[in-house]
Write a structure and sequence with these properties.
single chain, 99 residues, mainly alpha, 7 helices, 69% helix
């Protein structure tokens, strides 16, 4: 429950190498984390503090990865109590061509 604060702090204030290690670890679970109360905060920090390339990877995963034999769509995420904030942050932090 409190590990998300540590990870968020590293994403905000840590070295780029540490940020990239976190991104490597969570990229495959990014949609599931977005749907979680505490995980969504970590994903939002990723969208705020990672490089443009890493943000693009996250956005690609958010809109295209099937989860547990079902496709969680962007519409599902927008209707989620937590993931809707992740989608909003993705739009806020994306470049014009990525939007």
């Amino acid at each position: 429950m409190y590990g998300n604060y540590v990870v968020s702090h590293v994403l905000e204030f840590g070295e780029n190498s540490d940020r990239n290690r976190i991104a490597d670890e969570i990229i495959d679970d990014i949609v599931e984390l977005s749907m979680h109360k505490y995980g969504s905060n970590v994903v939002e920090k990723c969208l705020q503090h990672l490089s443009a390339d890493r943000k693009s990877q996250i956005v690609d995963r958010l809109v295209s990865v099937p989860i547990a034999h079902q496709q969680i769509t962007l519409v599902d995420m927008l209707q989620s109590k937590y993931a809707n904030f992740v989608v909003q942050k993705a739009f806020q932090t994306a470049t014009d061509d990525r939007r």
